[in-house]
Amino acid sequence: MHVQISCYFIFCILCSIFFTNEVLTSMLLCVLLFLHQYFYLIMFIHPTHVEPRAHCTECDAMTTASFIHCKTCNLCFPVTYFHWDLVERCVNIDDVKKYIFTVRLILAVNTTCALIQSIVYPPFLVLVLCHIVAWKSIDKYLRWNI
Asked: Could you tell me which residue, 47 or 32, shows the higher pLDDT?
């Protein structure tokens, strides 16, 4: 799903480039795209193991005593982590919140920019509707159950 979201954001950047007065908007969307990629990669950093160590009977690994075993990943993670099906991995709750906030921020900026651009060029309202449909379809994947 991350690849589809990234392709959608790149499409939005390309649409904003076609307007000659929208250079700053394109730069803002590029920065937000880089933040989106950064927060996605942050979710894949493994937690550090600190002493004291304990033996996990399910994966036969030496982990920190406060780690719990995820049956889906078959790895041990801290208690602040949960398995998120979007990335098919256990991720930190704070990292997920940052990722979701960034995606929703980009969706809001894209919709707002398309709405403002449709004032100058009325057929651009079609793109506003596309942004709203994309927002609705992306938002259902950004939910998690702990």
From this structure: 32
